[in-house]
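Forum > Structural Biology > Help requests

Title: Can anyone predict the 3D structure of CDT1 domain-containing protein?

Hi all, first post here. I have the sequence for CDT1 domain-containing protein but no way to get a structure on my laptop. I'd be grateful if someone could post the structure tokens.
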Amino acid sequence: ISDGTKVGHDSPSKGFLPFSGTRLIQRRNRFHSLLINLVLKSHRVFLTSELGIDPSELPEDSSLRRWHPKFPLESAVACIVSSPLPIRPSDFEQKITSAKDAVKAFQARALFREADTCHQISLSKQQLSPIPSPKKSVAASPLKVSNVIDSTAYTASNLVGTQTDSKESNDKMITSTPNNLKGISLALLNKVRARENERRLLTELTYGKVSEARRAIYCRLPLIITQVWSILRPCNARPLPLSTVAVRVADSHPSGLSADAISEHLDVLLELAPCWIEKLNWSIVHLRLKDPGRSVKDVIDMIKLKVAKDGVNI
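Reply #1:
Sure, ran it for you. Structure tokens for CDT1 domain-containing protein below:
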């Protein structure tokens, strides 16, 4: 008899299951993993059966960061069917004729001792004052949910996040057509736009919790890296005031951003590429290239790999 944990798997050779803190953590993590896998399976079935999406186009479950907005978490996930508990062993009825029977008897008795312990813990928790439930978080991650055992209902609501009214906006038919699309069937345009929305939603499923402002900064970094390199490279590793670098980048950047906005971009660049550029916190903050011999292409490739972990492709 084992509960799937490492401690539970190693213990039968000793004839008992130690009920330790390490095993409690392993049991909680296993329970959390089983819940997530159940929801992931229901989510994949919903995308393929209800929305008609080809399974080959779906992202891997490990890369998901949120559920599809149309996914009805409360109703789509099947209820967990309870399994019958084993019969409590009796010291008088059970006959032990071999060492194998003795080990099984020890394991069964340990299981029911743990059940009694869990019951006592549950009763002690019910006597505590209730903790107010926190607010639901927007676009919560399905792979990072806490307090699963004590608040299973809150976990389910946290997984789905705050669902928007995207269904109404996506189902709304387009009645006006731009001049450059005159002559094209309105039904065909609606079909194409619906397909584009589905592809966009599938792409957003793999996005992490990165704000749109941060995402925009990531997309501008490749050009800013080239500009910073052209400004600092002639200095031969000598530092240059950050304000000067920001003004020069702002003057030559096609987006028309201010120097203050460019300074925010430079802070993100310092965070992502500390091995290439560094900030000197003098009375006037300066910047300098930490590795002047490194090519711009290598720096941009390194930045792309780092931001890709947040689900942003630049």
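The chain has a mean pLDDT of 75. Residues 21-49 form the longest helix (29 residues).
Shout if anything looks off.
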